[in-house]
């Protein structure tokens, strides 16, 4: 855990504006099949034909909490453009997640990675970790740390994936 804490603190120290979306070089898109808080199963394959942002987060992660409203703004702005956000919570109790969501309602699914298996498969070693998936199901970009996902630059990049 000390190694993870160090990596997390390094990510906190980096200003959000200094970071950019990095092209993905980590290989094939891992499978994603997780349940949401209502028990509904979500599979990444079900979202083929859409741009999907897969965000790994936790309630204890300050940068995660800070960027969530920008995901919501992006989702609302691009709702009619075939863009989906999936928030994957990393191994926290449902009660804690629900308490958090009472203070920050979201219009996108919160999925449960109960044992961290999915985060490991996706190489999400730092939180927040977000992956931008193209309509063909391939990961195109990854971003580690906080970012304003509703910025015009990010929105333009995501819309380019849909063309």
Helices and strands in order, then pairings?
Elements (H helix, E strand, L loop, with lengths): L1 H12 L8 E2 L9 E3 L5 E3 L7 E7 L4 H16 L5 E8 L3 H10 L6 E4 L3 H5 L7 E5 L5 E6 L7 H10 L2
Parallel strand pairs: 4-5, 5-6
Antiparallel strand pairs: 1-8, 2-3, 4-7, 7-8
Overall pLDDT level: 89
Q: Kindly, what is the distance between the CA atoms of the first and last residues, rounded to a whole number of angstroms?
A: 42 Å
Strand content: 15-25%
| Run of helices and strands | HEEEEHEHEHEEH
Rg calc:
15 Å
Question: Strands of the largest sheet, in order across it?
Answer: 1-8-7-4-5-6
The percent of residues in helical segments reads 25-40%
Low-confidence stretches: 1-19
Backbone shape: globular
How many strands? 8
> Biggest sheet: strands, sense, closure?
6 strands, mixed
Instruction: Figure out the total of helices.
Output: 5
Oligomer: single chain
Class inferred from helices and paired strands: alpha/beta
3D architecture notes:
By secondary structure, the chain is of the alpha/beta class. 33% of the residues lie in helices and 23% in strands. It has 5 helices and 8 strands, in the order αββββαβαβαββα. The strands form 2 sheets. A 6-stranded mixed sheet has the order 1-8-7-4-5-6. A two-stranded antiparallel ribbon has the order 2-3. The radius of gyration is 15 Å and the shape is globular. The termini are far apart. The N terminus is likely disordered.
């Amino acid at each position: 855990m000390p190694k993870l804490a160090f990596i997390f603190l390094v990510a906190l120290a980096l200003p959000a504006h200094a970071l950019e979306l990095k092209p993905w070089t980590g290989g094939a898109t891992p499978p994603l099949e997780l349940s949401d808080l209502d028990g509904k199963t979500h599979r990444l394959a079900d979202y083929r034909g859409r741009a999907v942002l897969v965000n790994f987060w936790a309630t204890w992660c300050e940068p995660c909490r800070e960027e969530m409203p920008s995901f919501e703004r992006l989702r609302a702005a691009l709702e009619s453009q075939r863009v989906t956000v999936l928030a994957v919570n990393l191994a926290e109790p449902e009660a804690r997640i629900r308490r958090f969501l009472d203070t920050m309602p979201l219009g996108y699914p919160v999925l449960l990675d109960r044992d961290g298996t999915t985060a490991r498969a996706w190489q999400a070693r730092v939180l927040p970790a977000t992956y931008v998936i193209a309509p063909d199901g391939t990961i195109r970009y990854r971003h580690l740390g906080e970012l304003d996902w509703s910025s015009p630059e990010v929105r333009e990049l995501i819309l380019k994936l849909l063309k």
